[in-house]
Amino acid sequence: MANPLAWDDFRLVKAIADQRGLAPAAERLGINPSTAFRRLGQMEAALGTLLFERHRAGYAPTPAGEEMVRIAARMEDDVAAFSRKLDGQLLAPSGELRVTTADSLFNDLLAPIIARFCDRYPEVRVDVVLSNQPLNLSKRDADVALRATDGPPDTLVGRRLATIAWALYGRAEDGAEIPPGERRWVSLAQETGAAKVARYVAARADPARVALRLDTVVGLVKAVEAGIGIAPLACLSGDRHAGLMRLSPPEPDLSAGLWLLTHADLRHSARVRVFLDFVGTEIARLRDLIEGRVPFSGPR
């Protein structure tokens, strides 16, 4: 064949078969009947076979014509399916999405949000990596990071969703009457990257009163709940535990930014984009809680 067949050639053959004639097929396609006649002749000459048998009752496709009609029908179905996908009827982001965050942020904030995200986007498979040390998104250790930081890497893009407020907490059953200086304390170890918390405790507690040091915020909350000592906690963590009470207002020196980050090369990926938008919207609803303006009042 001198020239390859085009999509319009298949459309013409199908229209002739459906309408059983050149004139009605041309009208359906919005072309001149003479143009339809000429194009059909060119196709048959190029293929070296008839596509239609001409009868008094109309045009009947030959076996070659029937095959072109079947192909055209499949092509129409594919085009229609693609249009539906673009309209959002069938298209949903899909594939694996690797998310990293700290264990405390996952437990206190992200877990229920991911549950709702999975309900909305069931074709996205979320792989969560819990780490209190930043993963390298540039090396694709993760696609998205939810991090508490005041200085996100320049290599990443994203937005600051809120400011995480911290305050001093103790067990509610112990009350607030005993001065902090006379209590036992629990602290994060400075080598965990929580230097703010370690400095805060060191400035207020005699070293002999620091009963325990831990390397995770989750462990810090559990230690305060168990009555080991008082400790600074993120309001997001402390306010959601009924057995704990604030012993101080939010401490500005302990606050940290809450950032949702990805690599610049990934921000236009469908599954990354919908995750960023979804999580950003959900966290915006909880901003007063995260920033310590309202106490936690039940499951969210």
UniProtKB/TrEMBL annotation:
It comes from the Bacteria. Belongs to the LysR transcriptional regulatory family. InterPro entries: LysR-type_TF_proteobact-type, LysR_HTH_N, LysR_subst-bd, WH-like_DNA-bd_sf, WH_DNA-bd_sf. Keywords: DNA-binding, Transcription, Transcription regulation. PROSITE patterns: HTH_LYSR. SUPFAM superfamilies: Periplasmic binding protein-like II, Winged helix' DNA-binding domain. Pfam families: HTH_1, LysR_substrate. This is Transcriptional regulator, LysR family. The lineage of its organism: Bacteria, Pseudomonadati, Pseudomonadota, Alphaproteobacteria, Hyphomicrobiales. GO terms for molecular function: DNA-binding transcription factor activity; sequence-specific DNA binding. Residues 5-62 form the HTH lysR-type domain. GO terms for biological process: DNA-templated transcription. It comes from Methylobacterium nodulans (strain LMG 21967 / CNCM I-2342 / ORS 2060). Transmembrane segments: none annotated.
